Amino acid sequence: MEGKPVPKMIFINLPVTDVARSTAFYEKLGFTRDPKFSNEQASMMAWSDEIKVMLLAHPFYSTFTKKPVADAHATSQVLLCVSADSRDGVDQLVATAEAAGGLPDPGPTQEMGEMMYGRSFEDLDGHHWEVGWMNLAAMGEVPHQPIVEEA
């Protein structure tokens, strides 16, 4: 007998130097630790029912790849982005990250008037998170334009 379909989810795996310290940081941002999938090597942190962040100690992370673990303080490998409900929500999450020990605004503020607003922060291991707000009502009907010009 088949059960209910499993919802689509995304699992973001991040190498961290200290699982407990990183877990505490993400809890301060509003993530919830799932103890069923957490131990001294990893913490599964839920942002929502669909978005999970796996905080993996470097040695454990290394078991999933043959490549060296990047130092996110020195290199950029990915830009992660979450949405906020308002401009104030963007500012609040960045301020919370800073108060928890993160670095505010490693990237430029994205100011697009009444349509969009975004800022960013780095977590304790240098992973770059963007926080964005979009006012879909103010955008109206936007004509499709490719991000990359076709040759």
From TrEMBL:
Organism equals Sphingomonas rosea
Q: Check the record and name the PROSITE patterns matching this protein.
A: VOC
Per its record, how is this protein called by name?
VOC family protein
| InterPro entries to which the protein is assigned, alphabetical | Glyas_Bleomycin-R_OHBP_Dase (IPR029068), Glyas_Fos-R_dOase_dom (IPR004360), VOC_core (IPR037523)
Signal sequence, renumbered to the chain: none
By its UniProt entry, which CDD domains does this protein fall under?
A: VOC_like
- The residue ranges of the VOC domain are 8-134
* Superkingdom to which the source organism belongs: Bacteria
